[in-house]
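Lab notes, practical 5.
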Amino acid sequence: MKKYVYMFPEGNGSMRELLGGKGANLAEMTVLGMPVPQGFTITTEACTRYYEDGKTIHPEIQEQILEYLDKLQQVTGKTLGDPNKPLLVSVRSGARASMPGMMDTILNLGMNDTICDAVAKLTDNPRFARDSYRRFIQMFSDVVMELPKSTFEVFIDQVKEKKGVKMDNELDAEDMSELIELFKAHYQKSLGEEFPQDPKKQLMEAVRAVFRSWDNPRANTYRRMNDIPHSWGTAVNVQSMVFGNMGDTSGTGVAFTRDPATGEKKLYGEFLMNAQGEDVVAGIRTPQPISALADTMPEVYQQFVDISSRLEQHYGDMQDMEFTIENAKLYMLQTRNGKRTAQAAIKVAVDLVDEGVCTKEQAIMKVEPKQLDSLLHPTFVPAALKAATPIATGLPASPGAACGAVYFTAEDAAAAHKNGQKVVLVRQETSPEDIDGMAVAEGVMTARGGMTSHAAVVARGMGTCCVAGASGVKVSEEDKTLTFADGTVVKEGEAISLDGSTGNIYLGEIATQDAELTGDFGRFMGWADEIRTLKVRTNGDTPRDAVQARKFGAEGIGLCRTEHMFFETERIKAVREMIVSDTVEQRRAALAKILPMQRGDFEGIYRAMGGLPVTIRLLDPPLHEFLPQEDDDIKELADEMGITFDKLKSKVDDLHEFNPMLGTRGCRLDVLYPEIAEMQTEAIISAAINVWKQDGIEITPEIMVPLVSEINELRFVKQVIKAKADALIEASGLPMQYLVGTMIETPRAAVTADMIAEEAEFFSFGTNDLTQMTYGFSRDDVGRILETYFDKKILESDPFARLDQQGVGKLVRSAAEAGRSTRPNIKLGICGEHGGDPSSVEFCHAVGLNYVSCSPFRVPIARLAAAQARVKELGKA
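Output from the prediction step:
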């Protein structure tokens, strides 16, 4: 028979996959001889079986639970349901990854009418017994029967009002008796049955409820945010109760071995006398700081200080502990590595190394890479954010905090910014033409689009806060209004606030604070750079991007998107002139106007990167993106260009495609119009020659041909590139080398990578498009179905935010191996948005890529993730 239940002494701290974090730590503290109330843990495998068996607890597991209950009864000398020696237990969740507050807890289980009277007599404390019973009814009803806790609070308020008191602890034993009767009547009226009196039935229902809570909405959301698989399941800890609400020599509290906000080395926490754990966090009474326990109970305080220090030394990390004092005796209910702010995480990691508690490699593993986001972007002032309530939620597409006046077009946003206003650009969805407005906005909000939509990608590159795909929000650019699901309307010029880290949207302005980087940050990231082997480049389209990325430690540019340079007002005229040209000669004349602009951009980027590698992608998007689609806009542009409306309208219609993302874009443009590739090659190579000659910076340009599916496409475009590049280099007299490579972003390119490597000197995996084409999802529209897919467990995460390692990853791995089989020294990188996602970076390290490339503000995240991947590989975590 498989073992599904373990007594605490049977486990240890290494068994967290089976016992969950809480169960493993309770077992470890027991082994260390600490004062832990005894109990048993029902394993994560039992939870997994619960879901496999159609959300039922298998009789075999129920039998083991009762067997181990009997063992607990023997250890404690108490029995569940025995009025002479009653055992009461808590039932708590405990996944292998810490998920604070995401799942459910039940205290005082085993209470019923008979046991309540028995406990009152045994303790000579009727108030304590009845208070414990009323708490159990309330918790059991809420957690197990899903009868909201708030519906019971009404009765508590009524009794307090009748008695003329404000605090719960001012109610006496008689008041508690009244509450018990009110609670039981409410239970029966709401659920059509009496409150259960059989303690064993209570226990099984509670275990079932904890298993069920693994799949509750808040737990599912937390898991998606933190890459925790649903398949892990949660363990359940059944622990004999100790009571902090027995009187003035009892109490309960929560404490950290260091300040979780700053990382300062001091005991930080709070406690309440004559209370149970829920009271500390409920806010009904004001807890005291943990330091005050030294005056209240000096011996208990000193014992707690000693245990805290011992636990931190043992686990080698800051601890978050829960404790209860029963009749002046200390009990430890939990310890775990404490959640902390990014600032605190860096300080704690550095201090622990300095104190000799852990190695640099171990310190590297103590900071979540995604936490670094909050160090690089403005955040809301915590007190101001706590007082605010979101009116809507979208996707957290680019981190940071932003507030400002709403504007609905890029032009209006730019004008308002020029007048000194802070602005938030709100669009149905953004397009490349919105770049001027996005550049001046504090934040961007879109009603449509996903985590890799245009708005998300560009905002991340700029380090601008963005909330995308805010479903249920209506954007009317015509009326210049933003309408929320509850009917609230925000007009142009009125303020909203965006939290790009959570996706929350708020009415009005919430105070923000600038990010701060300390000396500890540079030191910590230096350790990461010493350890990692995977290089980190940036996706950058302007010299400004390049400068910012280098400050964050980028080791080159892995993707420079030339089309983003075309949308500035002066340039787009020449681009449009090229598009409407009827002959090659006309097209070349228009391209000649663009050439010096492109060359100037590349010179700026080369100088900013100081000789580090720069990969420049040839023009990728469909040409229709550069032209207006509405008749009024077409007429206005035709007048501006000096051509007829009919001619321009005809050209717009000619370029229309039913599925432009699979249409005339990427290398197909260069095959149809080789002169575009010629001009861009001249700009890339001549800029490198100029910077080499003027600044002495030796450059090896990397020219990337996008959307190749067939080797002959690459072969054709490479011939065009080589003819122009070789002539320019020969004329310059410089010994310049250059590379021609391709993006692997179609499934066919991935499966024929060995052939493509005959021509390609490097591969860059464009995993945004590769994911789109492998799944057949539109990345701009997939947000509409993702929530349903998450709810139905079809997908656990957004494949555009976290690389699908089983499908898309398999293509990446096989293409990397095939490419190296043909060209052993081929350079391999990734330049999709996955380049800044920690789990995807770890995959890239495992596959053996040379580098990842991501937006500038995600470079530190990728550096740390790459270091952690190396530490795991070396087994030094």
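Observations recorded by the TA: The mean pLDDT is 91. The first strand starts at residue 5 and ends at 7.
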